[in-house]
């Protein structure tokens, strides 16, 4: 036998069905096309195309045989090209800064499932919190004529990107930059005020904060919550114990090591980002700081990973599953032309999950 493989298949004309072996080269890695199926089956491209698109103009028996052959050959329809030709748009774009960020990976997975239930497929794009990459990613999504966009914007979105989004169906997610009248957010300020109050009620007076840069809307709100509650207690956030950073695990690790290596150490550390929290928690463990005996620790993110740390970590946990459900509901109704969607920002409450990483400071405990 030559370098090809052979496929036993039915071959058709518009009247007869008969069998033969078809040579299929195994070295050709390109996707199977309609023209390939037509050539193999001895039919016109138009007949095969109509059968694959469930047209009534092809006899039912012949159409079923064509579809069976296409499935055996691994044919996959180019749904995006089809949607462009037919002017139907079955795709929704989701722009996130970082898919390794546990918050966004949870949200992306949930959004994909919820959009599928509404008949849409999710196209994921990643900005890396880089305004130029953000522009390029959004341009590609818009050129693909996605039906709608879910966007977690960068802190420094360019004017050209804002102009690019004009006229698009956009819902902001987790962050806001004033791109749309629709946004699904976490009630960050209230959540971090609650976490700060928890530490104050335990007796902590020296509280350090490592958080996302306040040029991001969610970073600004988290910082505002901490400052508000400290002000209510008649104190403030010490600049020496405050770090506002890009939300990466590396930044969280390095800043925690630097902050906690000083001559004096805070009695409590509050971290305002899931990636920063992972880095900070690793630094605390590597430095041999006993939690909560030497320092209380409150982190942010998905509550489940906090259970794996010893002791379990007190966690501000955002409702990313519910946020994803809400944002997909809004974008589905937007692209369907539903005019009954209430305008404005939807804010969902975060939960403070208290575990053993927070306790009264050692000086308080010793004093009674």
Give the tags.
3 domains; Rossmann fold; 42% helix; 20% strand; six-stranded mixed β-sheet; 368 residues; alpha/beta; six-stranded parallel β-sheet; 14 helices; 434 Repressor (Amino-terminal Domain); single chain; 14 strands
Ordered list of secondary-structure elements with their pairings:
Blueprint: E1 4-12, E2 17-25, H1 34-41, H2 45-52, H3 60-72, H4 79-86, E3 91-96, H5 102-117, E4 121-126, H6 131-143, E5 148-151, H7 159-164, E6 170-173, E7 182-186, H8 188-201, E8 207-212, H9 217-232, E9 242-245, H10 249-260, E10 268-272, H11 274-286, E11 296-300, H12 303-306, E12 314-317, H13 320-335, E13 344-348, E14 351-353, H14 362-367
Parallel strand pairs: 3-4, 3-5, 5-6, 6-7, 7-13, 8-9, 8-10, 10-11, 11-12
Antiparallel strand pairs: 1-2, 12-14
Description:
By secondary structure, the chain is an alpha/beta fold. It has 3 domains: 4-77, 434 Repressor (Amino-terminal Domain), CATH 1.10.260.40; 88-186 and 321-348, Rossmann fold, CATH 3.40.50; 188-318 and 351-367, Response regulator (Rossmann fold, 3-Layer(aba) Sandwich), CATH 3.40.50.2300. The chain has helices spanning 34-41, 45-52, 60-72, 79-86, 102-117, 131-143, 159-164, 188-201, 217-232, 249-260, 274-286, 303-306, 320-335, 362-367; strands spanning 4-12, 17-25, 91-96, 121-126, 148-151, 170-173, 182-186, 207-212, 242-245, 268-272, 296-300, 314-317, 344-348, 351-353. The strands form 3 sheets. It has a 6-stranded parallel β-sheet with strand order 4-3-5-6-7-13. It has a 6-stranded mixed β-sheet with strand order 9-8-10-11-12-14, sandwiched between helices. α11 (274-286) links the parallel β10 (268-272) and β11. α10 (249-260) packs across α11. The longest helix has 16 residues, at 102-117. The protein is elongated. The model is unreliable at 1-29 and 83-88 (pLDDT under 50).
């Amino acid at each position: 036998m030559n370098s090809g493989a052979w496929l036993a298949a039915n071959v058709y004309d518009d009247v007869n069905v008969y069998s033969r072996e078809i040579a299929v080269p195994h070295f050709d890695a390109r996707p199977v096309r309609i023209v390939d199926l037509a050539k193999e089956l001895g039919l016109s491209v138009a007949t095969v195309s109509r059968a694959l698109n469930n047209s009534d103009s092809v006899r039912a028996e012949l159409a079923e045989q064509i579809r069976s052959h296409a499935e055996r050959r691994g044919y996959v329809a180019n749904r995006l090209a089809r949607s462009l030709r037919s002017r139907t748009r079955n795709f929704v774009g989701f722009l996130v800064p970082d898919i390794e960020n546990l918050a966004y990976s949870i949200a992306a997975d949930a959004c994909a499932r919820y959009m599928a239930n509404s008949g849409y497929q999710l196209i994921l794009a990643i900005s890396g919190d880089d305004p130029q990459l953000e522009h390029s990613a959004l341009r590609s999504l818009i050129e693909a004529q996605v039906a709608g966009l879910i966007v977690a914007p960068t802190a420094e979105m360019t004017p050209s990107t804002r102009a690019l989004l004009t006229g698009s169906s956009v819902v902001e997610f987790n962050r806001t930059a004033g791109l749309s009248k629709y946004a699904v957010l976490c009630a960050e300020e209230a959540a971090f005020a609650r976490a700060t109050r928890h530490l104050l009620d335990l007796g902590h007076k020296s509280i350090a904060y490592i958080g996302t840069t306040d040029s991001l809307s969610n970073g600004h709100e988290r910082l505002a919550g901490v400052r508000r509650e400290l002000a209510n207690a008649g104190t403030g956030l010490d600049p020496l114990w405050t770090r506002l950073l890009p939300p990466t695990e590396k930044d969280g690790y390095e800043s925690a090591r630097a902050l906690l290596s000083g001559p004096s150490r805070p009695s409590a550390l509050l971290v305002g980002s899931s990636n920063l929290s992972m880095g900070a928690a690793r630094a605390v463990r590597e430095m041999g700081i006993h939690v909560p005996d030497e320092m209380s620790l409150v982190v942010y993110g998905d509550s489940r990973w906090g259970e794996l740390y010893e002791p379990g970590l007190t966690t501000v946990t955002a409702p990313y599953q519910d946020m994803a459900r809400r944002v997909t509901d809004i974008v589905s109704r937007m692209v369907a032309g539903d005019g009954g969607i209430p305008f404005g920002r939807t804010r969902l409450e975060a939960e403070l999950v208290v575990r053993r990483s927070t306790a009264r400071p050692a000086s308080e405990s010793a004093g009674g």
